[in-house]
Fold these 3 entries.
Entry 1:
Amino acid sequence: MKQPVEMVVAPVIAARRDEVSVAANELDQLIEAKLAELKQKPNAIVSNMYNFWADTLRLVQSPTNNMVADPYLAYVKDSIRENKQYDQWVYEMLTADGKLWEHPAVGFQLRDDGMPLPYVDNTVRVFLGTQIGCAQCHNHPFDHWTQHQFYELAAFTTGTKTRNLSGGTDMGKAKGKANSYRSLMTQAEAKYPNNKVPGHHCQSSLEASSWCWLHRTN
């Protein structure tokens, strides 16, 4: 049996203790000064936090070739600026429907437009902090997720339908409405001063309502 090692702790020299105390006070003062400076520049706080969320939410200006996400990017910045409650913010992004310029929170879903399974994987990564992507093709080799569970989760968003301005989908046909570029752009222009729509050359709309789910399964 090993014998315990005796340790001798030398007392802290008084002068050294004073140096540490002074340094700690200077650090506190520096932090307080920086916080006060940031309060005078609220946009600096928004910009800093936006950089963090831009990485987390994988924000890009053009998620696809036929869509510009300017309204969604502005929505993220406004949510940070308003200090919106996190649960409310997440709820808005996961349940939003409508056109991007009217309900910019749909930009979260449109980020992976046309990729429903990666959307599920990315959503779980962002909001649940775990990875289930491997279970898309087989039972997860290092976790307890099964392939069947992955597709059970994916079923929650399978009913989401999108339409863009380049040709329309079965969603447009199901409602019996035209899906022309000019029709949608006219609606968008009416929402902005001087009829200038952010990302004017390309906009998309998304609807994720119950009729979409029923239409898909019937």
Entry 2:
Amino acid sequence: MLSNRSSVRRLANQKQRRRARRLGIRIPQRFYPDVDDTAFVLMALQRVKYPDPTRMEGAIRRGIQWLLSMQNRDGGWGAFDRDNDRGFLCNIPFADHNAMIDPSTADVTARVVECLGRFGWPAEHPASSAPSNSCSKISPATAPGSAAGA
């Protein structure tokens, strides 16, 4: 009986995931943090009154440090990877719709710069000004290979 219940539950989860994909809903994944989602969460945490402010400040500090560590050499940010913009990877036979690369995109970069600004980082700070200095090199969000355009 227990195995039947777990089988039914597994099939229901698979059906739910397929339906969500058809509707364009992202399925949460546990292994790869997402840069723009992290920026959104950090901005939301600014508005939360947490009973342990020291713990909250530590979590926010680590989140911002992680965001900064994900900045690409061109000054922008991609969705999941850092400096993963080598076009030859798209020629690998098992590459799924050019999803092997994760170049900087304007939408993700804007979200991170917005987050840094909300935390009081000045526009002159190298992390904030680097994207504006190289905007012509940053792919639009719908570029093939970007997380949004894949």
Entry 3:
Amino acid sequence: MNPAIPIIAAALAGAPDLPRGAQIDVVAAVIAAEGRERWKYMCAQAQAIRHRGGSAYQRVIEPGQFSCLNGTTPFALVVRMRREVGYDDARVLAKWLVVGAEKPFQGDPVNGATHFHDTSIRTPVGWGPCLAMVGKLKFFKPDK
């Protein structure tokens, strides 16, 4: 049996016990896909994920949280994004989120925000005031 098959199956199921390297790959793929190859976007998104607390991997695979996962699986996104410009940079950020590597940027570009969206869509009800703008991304901390 191919040794990657159990890891792939676990990723498809969103298993919490996925090996750290695979968790880093999934988180990096989400950051790269959402960040559109721009370092400042990816840093801001990584910081917002960090502000959500808990496992970065679990946060990014929660249904409906990241549009890049709509209609695909975490593993399929990794396969697609590994070839894209920006994936290696996103992996640096994912290592910070998943295993606590050194933070690769300074400060908090999102002022405590936990969620974001592109300015091309309307702000969801209950998201409260915009805490930061990074390029075309608006960052919020939704009302509880």
